[in-house]
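Example 9 (inverse folding). The structure is encoded as follows.
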């Protein structure tokens, strides 16, 4: 066995695990790694200037690539800064290995500066959290962490790397990676039960969750929707492209309020949740979003999610791609000739209703195209016609988002990524990670001005490495969604028309100045046509571009 240093072994272990990019922000405890990187020719180190930006960048990369993604941060404050975005990564089930440098183990008894016991800090937000205590354990623990992050249900893991481990040398067996084959098929009897329910349903609805896009199961879920004549929605929190947006049975996302969800679901006699969240709403309500007595077929990769909030008539533990394929075959076998005829009629009727709804939305968007400030729906409609077919949209548009899924066709599983966890500041850096993972595809981030300010340091990373992302900042000079919600409460704020802490004015944030100071080309515009022109140049360019657009700021119901 060769004698190796811990720092060299760590980099070699990452390469064994197929890692090509290391997202990091260094400090003294990471200096051994930075030293090893000085003579490494294979790993690309991507520096971000704040750990929240770093973590969201890594999350974008992990989600878009589906690969193990590695982050390195600096002791307690570095991990602390990353935690908000780690929460988002956990909700997105992103396979990320977060590592942090730690002081030398013999030094920690004195409680040096920046020190705290790291694994317990990360633990609530990861699948597994540990620290390397002996150099001989490093290979086993790195492989365990990687295997765990990638095993279904995927998710982040944490490993603390004390400096003495990285600096020590020993004879080391680097061992080898393990991969858990992900295509778990749900129990065959349960699939047959689910098929029997689907075959009889007269008004089925499918909720397509992130897990569908993650398992690249578009063909299978489309086939199932067509086989049973189901209306399809994505789950309520912004999510990935879990169903092709231009498909005639795709109705978009439901409005994320309990009453709306209930009113929508009440029109159906069976719900199939394919990896969707039942229900991750953001406001409590006296109305239960699930209509009583509506039978649920619940498919997920995570047993924790199955029946978590609502009893499932059938709970299917399995991978969507493998299980939906089985379900299609079982439903086809279980359906009577009469039911098949009714499905054809239903596909026609549901498809027509959805097409009419979209046409009306498009007409509204077109009618608003010349308005100033820019109406977000009009902007999305124009972008939908402009963006190349292979464009990838990263969305953190909050109050501006309604209609986005209907106006922009995101038809493949890597074409759209939305903020999963609700911790804003994710989208701007995530777009950089997505572009690094999918370099040949145009990447456009649609980001609220408030959200952009949480992690705007990421602009420097894009400029430094010349990563050609286009961001459109939907600038309403406010936390508009909070104003809308406070107005809706009809309390003092609504009566007095006073919204404390929600206006981003005085001074107005100069996004153009901010971006240019960090090396990113930027323009401020006021019309849809100007945005479209700039996006066209941006997506074919070699450098990042930020477009600051003045959008609708009204917050009262119209
Ligand atoms: C990390 C974090 N801090 C605060 C919030 C609360 N919050 C939710 S939306 C929002 C404002 C978003 O503003 P912007 O991005 O401009 O979108 P808009 O509401 O104007 O559409 C805030 C502060 C949050 N969700 N996450």
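The amino acid assigned to each position is listed next.
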């Amino acid at each position: 066995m060769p004698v190796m240093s811990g720092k060299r072994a760590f980099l070699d272990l990452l390469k064994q695990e197929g890692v090509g990019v290391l997202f990091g922000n260094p400090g003294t405890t990471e200096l051994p790694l930075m030293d090893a990187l000085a003579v490494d020719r294979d790993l690309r180190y991507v520096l971000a200037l704040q750990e929240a930006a770093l973590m969201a960048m890594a999350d974008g990369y992990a989600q878009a690539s589906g690969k193990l993604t590695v982050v390195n941060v600096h002791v307690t404050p570095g991990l602390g800064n990353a935690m908000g975005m780690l929460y988002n990564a956990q909700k997105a089930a992103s396979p990320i290995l977060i590592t942090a440098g730690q002081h030398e183990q013999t030094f920690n008894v004195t409680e040096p500066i920046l020190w705290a016991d790291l694994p317990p800090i990360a633990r609530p937000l990861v699948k597994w959290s540990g620290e390397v205590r002996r150099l001989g354990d490093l290979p086993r623990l790195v492989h365990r962490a990687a295997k765990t992050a990638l095993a279904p249900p995927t998710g982040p893991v944490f490993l603390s790397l004390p400096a003495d481990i990285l600096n020590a040398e020993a004879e080391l067996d680097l061992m080898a990676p393990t991969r858990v084959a992900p295509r778990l098929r749900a129990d065959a009897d349960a699939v047959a039960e689910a098929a029997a329910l689907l075959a009889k349903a007269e008004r089925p609805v499918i909720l397509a969750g992130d897990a569908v896009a993650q398992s690249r199961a578009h063909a299978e879920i489309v086939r199932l929707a067509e086989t049973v004549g189901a209306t399809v929605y994505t789950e309520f929190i912004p999510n990935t492209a879990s169903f092709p947006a231009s498909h005639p049975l795709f109705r978009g996302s439901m409005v994320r309020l309990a009453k709306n969800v209930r009113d929508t679901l009440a029109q159906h006699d069976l719900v199939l949740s394919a990896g969707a969240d039942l229900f991750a709403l953001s406001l409590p309500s006296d109305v239960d979003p699930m209509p009583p007595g509506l039978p649920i077929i619940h498919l997920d990769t995570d047993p924790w999610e199955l029946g978590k909030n609502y009893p499932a008539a059938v709970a299917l533990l399995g991978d969507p791609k493998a299980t939906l394929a089985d379900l299609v075959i079982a439903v086809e076998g279980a359906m009577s000739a009469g039911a098949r005829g009714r499905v054809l009629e239903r596909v026609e009727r549901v498809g027509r209703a959805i097409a009419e709804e979209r046409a009306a939305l498009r007409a509204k968007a077109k009618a608003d195209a010349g308005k100033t400030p820019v109406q977000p729906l009009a902007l999305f409609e124009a972008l939908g016609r402009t963006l190349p077919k292979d464009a990838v949209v990263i969305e953190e548009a909050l109050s501006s988002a309604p209609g986005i899924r209907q106006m922009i066709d995101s038809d493949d599983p890597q074409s759209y990524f939305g903020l999963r966890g609700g911790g804003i500041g994710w989208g701007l850096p995530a777009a950089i990670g997505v572009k690094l993972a999918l370099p040949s595809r145009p990447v456009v981030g649609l980001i609220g001005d408030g959200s952009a300010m949480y992690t705007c340091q990421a602009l420097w990373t894009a400029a430094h490495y010349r990563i050609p992302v286009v961001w459109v900042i939907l600038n309403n000079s406010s936390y508009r969604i909070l104003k809308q919600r406070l107005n809706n409460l009809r309390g003092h704020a609504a009566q007095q028309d006073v919204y404390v802490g929600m206006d981003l004015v005085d001074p107005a944030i100069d996004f153009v100045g901010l971006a240019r100071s960090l090396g990113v080309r930027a323009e401020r515009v006021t019309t849809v046509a100007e945005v479209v022109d700039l996006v066209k140049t941006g997506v074919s360019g070699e450098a990042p571009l930020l477009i600051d657009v003045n959008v609708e700021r009204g917050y009262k119901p119209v």
